[in-house]
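G., the chain you wanted modeled:
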Amino acid sequence: DIMAKPNDEREVTIPIDEEGFMAINFIGGPWSFPSKSMQMLADAPRRGYATDGPIDPFTNKVLILSVYYATGAAHDIHLSPFGDMAGIEHHANALNTILTQDFLTYASDWFNYVIYLLVGLIFGLVVPRYNMKWVLTGLAVFVALFIAEVFIAFNLLNFVHIFFSPLIEVVIVMVAITG
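Predicted structure as tokens:
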């Protein structure tokens, strides 16, 4: 039973966007998944015997094959959130996302617009009316709350939104106003 979140129907619904793409939830940078050479796999002894024959070392495993050069470098390098990564590792992360059902959820456009509007209104009303010392203190608290919210939203709920964009915007506007 490999389903992380099994349901009665034993089905997995993969969330895709309008273009048919799934957002990959990467578990880490390059080499996050174990890899072995084809020679090592070919020479691996069969372990034990079952009632109907030898036990295959690939039983209950997912095997993804890729071609690497003798130097250990892959030919198909693609950009990931962790920098350049081999294409096969993108496939492994995508398969891991599906098997563990650890899908990313993106905020809708209206939600992001509301965030922009609220941040703009709050700081548009606060900055001209209060002492700069209190405004900068409020900005520091705002930054801390944003960072905590992003940590909670992404790490615990897999929720992706644009909260860092208005945060950067507010910091730039504050520096410009202060300057």
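The chain has a mean pLDDT of 77.

Shout if anything looks off.
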